[in-house]
Amino acid sequence: MDRAMHWTRLLESAIERPCWDRPLVCDGLPDNSRVIIIGENPATEMEKDWWTYWKPESGFDRTAFMSDYQEQRRRKNKRPLSNTRLRLEWIRENGVAGVETNAYCNERPGGAGNGVGNYAVLDLLIRNMPQLVAVIAHGNVAKAFAAGYQFPSNVKELFELRHFRMESRAEINRICAEIKAMG
């Protein structure tokens, strides 16, 4: 079985169809990534089924997602990128491939409250990404998840940060340099 079909089957075991939440965002297949970035919850509500962006032959279509994400924000008279999304883009600009996910997968501006847990997806990702070398947990909810999780030995570093919206570009660049140096 090829990698893309393998990932499709894995994700189908943890993500319902249709899925109106946002369990993860990446570029292509999750195992192309070296880092998982865990936040609390997505703040921008999307109108499309998450599976719209997943292609069984190639993985997650980040380009289509970002186009829809920015359109959704424009409709609500918001900047094209949230403060958190801006920091996620800085990671990409540093050449660090990452899977973006959250402790809760449902979109709720201002916090998840009674969020829909994303723990099955987080565990699935962490256990099936052999190139994973680092985890970035930002915000109290993500840090609490990470503190109670037994990461596999390939994870060399856990970066526990305050919420991304408060982190500087210099701090994001420093973390990316450390991840890239992990080989």
Keywords:
single chain; 183 residues; alpha/beta; Uracil-DNA Glycosylase, subunit E; five-stranded mixed beta sheet; two-stranded antiparallel sheet; 6 helices; 7 strands; 14% strand; globular
Write the layout of secondary structure elements.
Layout: H1 3-12, E1 24-25, E2 35-39, E3 54-55, E4 59-60, H2 62-75, H3 83-93, E5 98-102, H4 119-127, E6 134-138, H5 140-147, E7 157-161, H6 169-181
Parallel strand pairs: 2-5, 2-6, 6-7
Antiparallel strand pairs: 1-5, 3-4
Describe the overall structure.
With 183 residues, the chain is an alpha/beta fold. The protein has a single domain (3-181), classed as 3-Layer(aba) Sandwich (Uracil-DNA Glycosylase, subunit E). It contains six helices and seven strands, in the order αββββααβαβαβα. The strands form two sheets. A five-stranded mixed β-sheet has the order 1-5-2-6-7, with helices on both faces. A two-stranded antiparallel sheet has the order 3-4. α5 (140-147) links the parallel β6 and β7 (157-161).
Number of domains: 1
Corresponding CATH architecture: 3-Layer(aba) Sandwich
Major beta-sheet overview: 5 strands, mixed
Mean pLDDT: 92
Per CATH, the class reads: Alpha Beta
Q: Count of helices?
A: 6
Bulk shape = globular
| Gyration radius from CA atoms, angstroms | 15 Å
Distance between the termini: 28 Å
Lateral strand order in the biggest sheet: 1-5-2-6-7
CATH fold call = Uracil-DNA Glycosylase, subunit E
